[in-house]
């Protein structure tokens, strides 16, 4: 089968598209015929050796896929060959086939395309977990989303709105802000043309922001850290700016807010029941039209490098998807 392979950490152009061995389903696993694979910012970090997890070489990047089960291992009884599913594979998704733990499968309801299903887990499930378990966001609270037109930022806009928050979208262009508005954002801030800190201080009668979903880091994080409400929750999602900020802890002390880390991959391992409950709720919202995956572009598997470059360059509005 064909797959994208990383033989050593380095620039994206070191990735190769090559023939690899087809996986076999061992106990507790299934093999998926992949129809679509989601492309995520951590995938690009991983192949450069910049991510928390460093798989042994050679490895195939890609954590979220949609496909059809082609082989079932021993001990797997709740799914069968031919089932159409979403799979969270960890690594191995940029390929024609992938091995997936049977515990990390979600049936795809009718009406959701392969491309949309492949983009649903990482971005939307991260945003859902962040706002539900980590922030415990309440109806009527203010939610600021930085990088609000990217995959997980746009998901946070939709889910925040579904959970009853007043959603503030911060983006680097008017085009991106318009997309955020179309997906439920109530207040729009262009932080390339306006000072983010000044704009935030004018919102919520000067009381500060209840929940911040920060995907950007850098200067955006610094502005957010100074504009939090009492009992606010500043969620650390990622650092798309490339700059991991330094946090002055005295701000949390005097302003009485929490800085909360969000790592969805670890959540699925530590709280599998909550993960399953979240996905049921998320799929229900999807079928009700409260959330959706906005696919920016679907490229052939062989164009994985171009897809990753677009994601890493923050040029994506919504999600990038690969089609084997």
TrEMBL record:
Enzyme class of the recorded protein, top EC level: oxidoreductase
Pfam family, one: ADH_zinc_N
GO molecular function: quinone reductase (NADPH) activity; zinc ion binding
Start and end residues of each Enoyl reductase (ER) domain: 10-322
Transit peptide recorded as keyword: no
EC number: 1.6.5.5
Keywords of this entry: Oxidoreductase
Superkingdom of source: Bacteria
Protein name per its UniProtKB record: NADPH2:quinone reductase
UniProt source species: Pseudoteredinibacter isoporae
Lineage, highest ranks first: Bacteria, Pseudomonadati, Pseudomonadota, Gammaproteobacteria, Cellvibrionales
């Amino acid at each position: 089968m064909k797959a994208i392979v990383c033989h050593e950490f380095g620039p994206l152009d070191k990735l190769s598209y090559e023939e690899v061995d087809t996986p076999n389903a061992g106990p507790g696993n299934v093999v998926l015929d992949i129809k679509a694979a989601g492309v995520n910012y951590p995938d690009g970090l991983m192949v450069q050796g910049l991510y928390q997890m460093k798989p042994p070489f050679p490895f195939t990047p890609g954590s979220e896929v949609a496909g059809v089960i082609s082989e079932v291992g021993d001990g797997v009884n709740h799914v069968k060959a031919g089932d159409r599913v979403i799979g969270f594979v960890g690594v191995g998704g940029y390929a024609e086939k992938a091995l997936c733990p049977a515990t990390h499968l979600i049936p795809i309801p009718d009406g959701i395309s392969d491309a949309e299903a492949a983009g649903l887990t990482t971005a939307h499930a991260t945003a859902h977990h962040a706002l539900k378990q980590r922030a415990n966001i309440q109806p009527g609270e203010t939610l600021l989303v930085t990088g609000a037109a990217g995959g997980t930022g746009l998901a946070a806009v939709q889910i925040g709105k579904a959970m009853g928050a007043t959603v503030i979208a911060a983006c680097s262009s008017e085009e991106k802000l318009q997309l955020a508005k179309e997906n439920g954002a109530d207040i729009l801030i262009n932080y390339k043309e306006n000072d983010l800190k000044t704009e935030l201080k004018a919102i919520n009668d000067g009381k500060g922001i209840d929940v911040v979903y920060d995907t950007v880091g850098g200067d955006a994080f610094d502005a957010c850290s100074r504009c939090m409400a009492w009992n606010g929750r500043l969620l650390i999602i990622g650092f798309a700016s490339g700059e991991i900020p330094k946090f002055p802890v005295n701000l949390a002390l005097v302003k009485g807010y929490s800085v909360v880390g969000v790592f969805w991959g670890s959540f699925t391992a530590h709280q599998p029941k909550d993960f399953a409950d979240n996905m049921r709720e998320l799929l229900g919202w999807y079928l009700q039209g409260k959330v959706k995956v906005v696919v920016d572009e679907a490229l052939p598997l062989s164009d994985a490098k171009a897809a990753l470059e677009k994601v890493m360059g923050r040029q994506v509005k919504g999600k990038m998807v690969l089609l084997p």
